Amino acid sequence: QVSSGLRTPRLPVWLCGVPGKHGVLFGTDSRLLSHWRAERVFHLYFYSGQQEQTQTAHLTIDTHSHHWEEAPSEDACSPEKRCSALEMAIRTKWAGATISWNGTDPF
User: Fold this and answer.
1) Is residue 99 a contact partner of residue 93, using CB atoms and an 8 Å limit?
2) DSSP E strand stretches across the chain
3) Spans of all domains in the chain
4) End-to-end CA distance of the chain, in Å?
């Protein structure tokens, strides 16, 4: 018997397979599952369990910011630089979102 928590999670959880990494992308705010207003600015966490990842990556997602509001950044996705595969995966759900890695090096 599968518990109802596995069939309908209480917190947002995604299993991710990005090139070279498999892991779990999850949030701690259950409102992301049911209230679209919670999708303005929120936090997600990524953990792969691989040896080189010593702690869970904490990401801040802002779905209403615009590229012209951002301060210029070397880490920003541009034609000269490639976006991280995890950022591209997140943008399949929240197109155009600004993603801050909060001091963690993007992988």
Assistant:
1) no
2) 13-18, 21-26, 41-47, 57-62, 98-100
3) 4-68+79-100
4) 37
The answer, as to whether pTM is greater than 0.70, is yes
Strand, coil or helix: 8: coil
Contact call for residues 97 and 91 (beta carbons, < 8 A): yes
What tens-digit pLDDT sequence spans the chain (107 residues)?
667 767 778 889 999 887 777 899 999 999 988 888 888 999 999 998 888 788 899 999 999 875 545 555 544 565 556 788 889 889 988 888 999 999 888 87
Tokens of 38: 């919670």
